[in-house]
Design brief:
This protein is an all-alpha fold and 220 residues long. Helices cover 80% and strands 0% of the residues.
Length: 220
């Protein structure tokens, strides 16, 4: 009888463990499917509305998957792009504030991450657009500082080089803009994009196309 009870207990434990693994696998599958769908939307975004929809969807997913930095990162990036495309200063600021909150959460989950550091610089670049006259010097310097930090941590990441080139191209000479230097950074970024491989399907992997577009401007 004791053996019978032991077998029942053992079977119950085995079933419980198996069910736990099955549930975990299902959750992972669900997360993978959702991320794939949302990142595809983000990849194809090209306007304020499409970036804003992607931003909100990714933020919702990030809150659902509160232990993963990747969704927070992409949600922040989408909010920054929304800010750049917004025509209203108040809305730009609001989108950037939301992006900062998401970056802060990503930072807690993955400290000293060169991708997050570079994204922080991109957010500072976005702050300039709210009030260029008052913010140009302060935030361009803050952005470049983050980009330099990111490329020091991983010199093979093309994004910091692209982003440095972008800010040098966009600000006036009087406050540090330099088209020649910007173009050199775009060329360096292009070289690194050729060999760069993201760590996973969901890892940051953006910037190559706009870098190519800006490189063409260097030829004019």
């Amino acid at each position: 009888m004791r053996n019978h009870h032991f077998i029942i207990i053992l079977l119950s434990l085995t079933i419980g463990i198996t069910a736990g693994f099955a549930q975990q696998a299902q959750e992972q599958k669900s997360y993978y499917a959702k991320m794939k769908y949302e990142l595809n939307k983000l990849k194809n975004a090209s306007s304020y509305d499409t970036y804003h929809k992607a931003a909100e969807s990714l933020k919702t997913l990030a809150l659902e998957e509160d232990s993963k930095w990747i969704p927070y990162y992409h949600a922040a990036y989408a909010h920054i792009m929304t800010a750049f495309l917004s025509k209203e200063k108040y809305n730009k600021e609001e989108m950037l504030n939301q992006a900062q909150n998401l970056i802060d959460k990503a930072n807690k989950l993955s400290p000293n991450n060169h991708e997050i550091i570079a994204l922080q610089g991109f957010l500072y670049h976005g702050r300039i657009a709210v009030n260029p006259q008052q913010r140009m010097i302060k935030y361009s310097q803050m952005a470049v500082k983050e980009y330099d930090h990111a490329r020091f941590m991983n010199e093979n990441n093309p994004r910091p080089y692209f982003l440095i080139g972008q800010i040098l191209m966009s600000i006036p000479k009087e406050v540090g803009g330099n088209k020649e230097s910007a173009c050199k950074h775009f060329v360096r970024a292009a070289e690194k994009f050729k060999t760069f491989e993201p760590r996973s399907d969901f890892s940051p992997n953006w910037g190559q196309k706009p870098n190519q577009i800006l490189m063409k401007k260097c030829q004019n």
